[in-house]
Amino acid sequence: MSTYQQRFEDLLGALRGAVAADEQFTLGYSAEHSQFVRLNHAKVRQAGLVSQASVQLRLVREGRQAEQHITLGDDAGLDRQRLQEGLEQLRQTLALLPLDPYLSLDESAWHSHSLLQPTLPELDEVLALIAREAGDLDLVGIYAAGPICRGFASSYGAFGWHQANSFNIDWSLFHGNGEAVKANYAGQHWSAEAFVARLRQAREQLAHLGRPAITLKPGSYRAYLAPAAMDEIAGMLGWGGFSGQALATGNSPLQRLYNGDARLSPLVSFSEQVSGSLSPAFSDEGSPRRDLLLIGEGQARERLVSARSAAEFALQANGADSYESPCALSLAPGNLASRQILERLGTGLYISNLWYLNYSDLPAARMTGLTRFATFWVENGQIQGPVSTMRFDDSLYSLLGSQLEDLTQEREMILSSSTYSERSTGSSHLPGALVKGLTLTL
């Protein structure tokens, strides 16, 4: 048993002995032990270690509920005292609250235990590799690595524990003219060869940025969207696209798809692939998660339903978090080999990244955003030069529907680089996409 799990179980034991007979509780646990290194000009500018843990205590009594977030320290006795104080505060708060009409607790005594602990590289090894391969480059980035833990327990006997090692190095290479290539390498199993290959690809793209910029007129262009660009599009779908609540209230960008009024390309199959991912197999509400087929061969299938939405809209809960966004979104691969991307593209746009996306027409699943970081104009399978930043505005039903030509055979595992409050466990596993037409507006 890990030290983190032991600390969690110690708090759980103290809580079980403190609650009254007419009280129910849930206890969520979150911890990390992360190395962080900031890089500039491929040199270490800041290095540090973050070790933190917290619990989310929810108290329920007679149809009312209240929650409190409690930061933990290294003193077990002080942590138990903080938990007891939090419990007392919640008791006082419950007396002031109205009944919660959509309160829904999973009363099953489920158990889940997952340890994903591949050996991570030594920090000295990573930094030496960066110095060797990128010492002459203006590389700016951040490296984060270490274990992330999540736990959950309830007064009904449910218990879940998830601990996973991961690394994420997110960087940009800057050209002397101010242009940049953005790249990322992340996962659970470190490969020096894979990192070097990704860095060398970025170096090759950086050389193309030295050519004169090409300005395109607004219009529709054949385009290849790299996995990082697809990740931005997939991230937008997390804004209610698969949400049971958003679909029930008519506020989902995929409303037409789930109503059966529209379809995507048969090549498109999106799944919530929790098994084997960095995300725990249980939700923040305390329900077991399972893998879900969200879109199968272009047609709507399952949706993400939290316990609260299930109670409000008479749906079947399936372990979604309270915000009902994917935590481990996976898009099935296609038939396009990566080595054939430029050849198959022929003449058109090679888009490494998209930026600042938003919905321009949510019911039509129409998105707008900017090209940025190594977008190139290609002619006859050869990169001609970088393209000046352009705005695109197009519908998902076009990009992943009528205009989708193929998806790549190879997919990229992209871990969330978010470190707000704590390192995220979110991820996506995505191919690149070759589209026959992408609309640029200005």
TrEMBL record:
Residues 218-440 form the Metalloprotease TldD/E C-terminal domain. InterPro entries: Metalloprtase-TldD/E_C. It comes from the Bacteria. Pfam families: PmbA_TldD_3rd (PF19289). This is TldD/PmbA family protein. It comes from Pseudomonas muyukensis.
